[in-house]
Every structure is written in structure tokens, then in C-alpha cells.
Amino acid sequence: MKHNDVVVLILGGGVGSRLYPLTKLRSKPAVPTGGKYRLVDIPISNCLNSGFNRIHILTQYNSVSLHNHITQTYRFDVFSAGAVQILAAEQTPNHSDWYQGTADAVRKQLGEVKSPDPRDVMILSGDHLYRMDYEPFLAHHRETRADVTLAVRPVPTAEVSRLGIVDTDDAGRVVKFIEKPKDMKLLDNVRQIPDPKNPWLASMGVYIFRAKALYEMLERDNSSDFGKHILPQSLDTHRMVTYTFDGYWEDIGTIRSYYEASLALTDTNPPFSFYDPQRPIYTRPQFFPPAHVTAGSVLDQVLLAEGSRIIESKICRSVVGQLSSIGPDVTMSNTVMMGADYESLFSVQAPESTRGLPPIGIGRGCKIDGAIIDKNARIGEGVVIRNLPDREDADAEFYAAREGVVVVPKNAVVPPGTVI
């Protein structure tokens, strides 16, 4: 069923400082995941699989990569009423500055939101990993006659400081919304749910607004953020309810969370799987050859994307992205390798050997454990990379570390024989 009376806004303009250096040259929603996808493919696919095809991506920071991906991937036919449209931050007679937060981004694009006269507006984040059918979510929103419906999930106490915590009354109406409480005393008067392991209800950053209610909230004042300002300030003026989601959901907000969520994809029964023919995750079609694994190679618990070449190497519990080149004699484990761009791999003006650079990929005899290797990285022969002890942070010429996870940035060159 198509929901042409709903406009979807996917927020994709944040700086993503906690995901640096993966966000050095791209926005958070453009960060690769699962060997061949981008994070933004997740909410877009959820929308398309749920019958929502009027989708806008709000972009601002480091947006070229994201724009290229969207325009090359989501091309609807001329007979479709839907589209995936980019709404970039822009200067207008009414607004001369950048987006100042989630609510400010939506406020500055209200002209585009209002033009099709939607009944409801669904607002999503562009950097979450989850699979959700939005149709029951919308049905609940309309059945309860809510002005705002928040998708929530139970979480443990360890996670409350990075999420918005919600309290409801017996009728299910939201009575408190506390954004990322740093002091547990702020939750003294918040009711816990009867789940010893996950006693708190947390907002997923997934909202449905009655369109006119959204306009009222945003035009009432100039507050910049939904979680910090708009939602808490609207508890007494608008009817706000929750919709509990019981599936897997992960906020890819830090290097550590990205790393752990990526490696979990390689599990025999992963918490999130791209293998669902009924509700596929869409991405840009690439016409790469099959992956090539030579004799003498050993692969155990590996997500291997097309176009990759594994030469006489041993790989364990790792994600290997498109057009990756590994080996020979490489040992790699607990690693997320993003692969290479076609243009960088094949459109080189001069042979790499004449420029004194290692080839793109991982060279002979390397030993890598516990790393993230971004696209087009050149790792010379005999390099050793290991997790830093005690989850340390570090910044160096050709790598960074966050919570102990070593990250080799996009286009970086690691000289032969380097030990990290």
C-alpha cells in the first residue's frame, strides 16, 4: 500500500565528529556498511518496503559523497508519484545560516514539506542500523489520534546517557522526555518498565508528526533540536504517544559502535541481516565481477563483497568490501575493510610502482587484527596493526584510534613494515 499522504524526512546533515575519521571526507549517512551499502540505504529501504516513497534527504556537512550515492541509486520511473529528493542546506531571503540542529533543519525546509500538503510527516535519522515496517507505526499513530508518535525501545541503564529517555502515563501518553541525561538523578521521577535488564524506554529518533502539529511546534519558536527542545516543550500542548519497537536497532554514533555492529554482521545468526528477499536493502547497482579467492586461502566468518581478490591469505570474522585486494600471506581478523572506489582503483594516470606507493589494498605478509580500513587505503608489505590496549585514543599521520579501534582513513598510505 502506498502512503502518498505522508512525507518522509531523513536527517543527514550532522558533522559526525564521534565517527571521525570515517566522516573526514563524507557525512555520517554516507559511511559504508555491510561491504557494499551506505548507512542511508537502511532508512530509505525501510521506507520503500513499507510503501512510503515521498522521501527527502536533508543534507549539509561533507555532502558530495552522499549526493552522488542518492542520485546514482534511487531513480524512480516517470510513472511513479514518488521520489528520493535531496534538500541541501541553502541560503534564502528568510534563512542565511546553516542548519543549527534537527528541528532547525526541518524548519528551514518547511516550504518543501508543505507543498504536497501531507497529512503526516515522518522524520528519521540517517545513521541507524535496523529493519522496521513503518506501516504499523503509522497505523498506531492515526488510531491513537496523536500529534506526535515516538518509536521507542527498552534499553539498559548503561545506554541512557546517549539516548532520549521517555516516561508515559497509564494511557500511554508521554509525560516526560529527557534528552541524553548525564546525571541519573534526572530520572528519579521517571517510571521504569518491568524489565530488569532493560528498564528504560528510549527514543529511537524515529517520529511521526501530524503535519499541522509539526508546523505549529516549529513556528512557535526558534528552538533548534527535537530531542532537546521541541519535544519536551510540547508535552503540555500536544498529544504525544509511543510505539514500542522490539527488533534490533543500533545507533551508529561512535567508532566503537560502528565497529561492533559491523563485525556482528558476520555472525551465523546476526542481529541484523541483509538477507531478506521480502524486504531487501537497496543500494547502488555495481557491475563488478565475482569475488576471487585463490588456492591456499582460508575464510572463516567473513562477509565478502563482489570484486574482491583474496590471495593465499587467512581471514577470520571480518567484513571485506567491494574491490578489496588482500595478500598474499596476509592474516586478518576482527577487521572492517571497506574496499576501493572503481575510479581510484582503475583510473590511475601512472603506474603506482613509478610513484613509489603501495598498491591499493593490503600488501604481502601483513598481520591485521581489530581495525577499520577505509576505502582506497594503501597498506604496504609487512605492516602489523592491532587494537590499542585499554581502549586508548590516538591520532597519527596515517591512522587514528578511537576506544582502541585503529582506523586507517580513506586514501591513507601506510608505509611497508609499519607496526601499530
UniProtKB/TrEMBL annotation:
Question: Which organism encodes this protein?
Answer: Sorangium cellulosum (Polyangium cellulosum)
The superkingdom of the source organism is Bacteria
Coiled coil residues, start to end: none
Which is one Pfam family of this protein?
NTP_transferase
Alphabetically, the GO molecular function entries are: ATP binding; glucose-1-phosphate adenylyltransferase activity
* Matches recorded under InterPro entries: ADP-Glc_PPase, ADP_Glu_pyroP_CS, NTP_transferase_dom, Nucleotide-diphossugar_trans, Trimer_LpxA-like_sf
Protein name per Swiss-Prot or TrEMBL = Glucose-1-phosphate adenylyltransferase
NCBIfam families, sorted: glgC, PRK02862.1
